[in-house]
């Protein structure tokens, strides 16, 4: 999703909660009503506060969502994705961010984007006596109240430390790696992107040269890269072999919990062939951004100091 790196951790959690709400409703598409429930589920966000102050509760909204929506399609939990209206909400969220002069996209921007799309969420809100104008006014009031207070919108999950935690990011398309790198930075880590062509030419010697004691995580991206595929046509299976070598390499260097594979849905079969690497974390690289929640949890599990 374009610009996903600008979403705060709370806003990303809203998407994760919306995904869970769609699954709860056995719906293959995350729609506006699921985003509304996700905003309520993220209680610490500005949007959650706005909705609660307008008298909304998760239970009441969910009850009305069940009344105004229906789903007759066969449910496939492996193929839950953003509906067109939900994508429009996120596009409007970006516009609301620009309009307010903010440099991040928070739950308040998602809420303001939501009320611009005519869908099930707006139908539910109207039935509860809440209008788009009321939400806009209440959001402005809450933002004005908190404007004077110091605001920390960082999504970093690690405590301040002199050590710089580094993360290797390998394979995949260039834009995929940039999106992952931007998210890695929000977690307080330093991404190290390895060029695909250098990888093919130099193999593990390149990694040995770049390796330092500060590297804590390796993320391998299984995605189709047309440029790499052209290069690899001369050496069939080269990339597959590299991935196998690299999984073994990083597993030995860092330990299995410090290796993560993000994979596109059409590469599930390839992932199954890598199941021998027990302990390695495998995460679907989904369009709804749920991978961010899972990757964040992985980083917390391996890097947060034990209490």
Brief sketch in words of this structure:
With 307 residues, this protein is an alpha/beta fold. It has 15 helices and 7 strands.
Defining traits:
307 residues, alpha/beta, Double Clp-N motif, Rossmann fold, 2 domains, 5-stranded parallel beta sheet, two-stranded parallel sheet, 15 helices, 7 strands
Q: Which parts are unreliable, with pLDDT below 50 for 5 consecutive residues or more?
A: 148-162, 197-203, 226-239
Radius of gyration: 21 Å
Biggest beta-sheet profile: 5 strands, parallel
Q: Given the structure, what is the number of helices?
A: 15
Number of domains: 2
Return the average pLDDT rounded to an integer: 77
**CATH H-level superfamily title of the largest domain:** Clp, N-terminal domain
Order of helices and strands: HEHHHEHHHHEHEHHEHHEHEH
Main-sheet strand order equals 4-3-5-6-7
Number-wise, the strands total: 7
SSE arrangement:
Layout: H1 9-24, E1 29-30, H2 32-41, H3 46-53, H4 58-68, E2 81-82, H5 84-100, H6 107-114, H7 120-127, H8 132-147, E3 166-170, H9 174-186, E4 190-193, H10 196-202, H11 204-210, E5 215-222, H12 226-232, H13 238-254, E6 259-263, H14 268-272, E7 281-284, H15 290-303
Parallel strand pairs: 1-2, 3-4, 3-5, 5-6, 6-7
Helix pairs in contact: 1-2, 2-4, 2-6, 2-7, 3-6, 3-8, 4-7, 5-6
Describe this structure in words.
The protein has 307 residues and is an alpha/beta fold. The chain folds into 2 domains: 4-147, Double Clp-N motif; 166-303, 3-Layer(aba) Sandwich (Rossmann fold). 53% of the residues lie in helices and 10% in strands. It has 15 helices and 7 strands. The chain has helices at residues 9-24, 32-41, 46-53, 58-68, 84-100, 107-114, 120-127, 132-147, 174-186, 196-202, 204-210, 226-232, 238-254, 268-272, 290-303; strands at 29-30, 81-82, 166-170, 190-193, 215-222, 259-263, 281-284. A 5-stranded parallel β-sheet has the order 4-3-5-6-7, sandwiched between helices. The longest helix has 17 residues, at 84-100. It is globular and about 60 Å long. Mean pLDDT is 77; it is low at 148-162, 197-203 and 226-239.
């Amino acid at each position: 999703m374009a610009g996903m790196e600008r979403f705060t951790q709370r806003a990303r959690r809203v998407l994760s909660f919306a995904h869970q709400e769609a699954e709860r409703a056995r719906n293959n598409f995350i729609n506006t009503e699921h985003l509304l429930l996700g905003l309520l589920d993220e209680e610490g966000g500005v949007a959650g506060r706005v909705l609660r102050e307008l008298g909304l509760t998760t239970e009441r909204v969910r009850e009305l969502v069940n009344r105004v929506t229906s789903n007759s399609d066969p449910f496939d939990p492996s193929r839950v994705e953003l509906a067109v209206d939900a994508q429009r909400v996120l596009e409007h969220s970006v516009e609301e961010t620009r309009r307010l002069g903010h440099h991040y996209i928070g739950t308040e921007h998602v809420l303001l984007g939501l009320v611009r799309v005519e869908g099930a969420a707006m139908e539910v809100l109207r039935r509860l006596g809440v209008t788009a104008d009321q939400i806009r006014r209440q959001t402005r009031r809450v933002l004005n109240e908190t404007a004077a207070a110091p605001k920390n919108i960082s999504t970093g999950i690690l405590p301040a430390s002199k050590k710089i935690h580094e993360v290797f990011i390998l394979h995949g398309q260039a834009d995929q790696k940039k999106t992952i790198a931007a998210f890695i930075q929000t977690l307080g880590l330093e991404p190290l992107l390895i060029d695909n062509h250098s990888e093919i030419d130099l193999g593990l010697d390149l990694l040995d040269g770049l390796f330092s004691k500060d590297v804590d995580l390796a993320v391998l991206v299984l995605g189709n890269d047309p440029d790499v595929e052209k290069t690899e046509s001369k050496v069939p299976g080269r990339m597959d072999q590299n991935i196998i070598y690299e999984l073994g390499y990083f597993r030995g260097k860092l330990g299995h919990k410090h290796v993560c594979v993000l994979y596109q849905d059409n590469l599930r079969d390839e992932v199954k062939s890598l199941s021998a690497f027990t302990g390695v974390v495998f995460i679907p690289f989904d369009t709804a951004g749920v991978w961010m929640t899972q990757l964040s949890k992985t980083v917390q599990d391996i890097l947060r100091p034990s209490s």
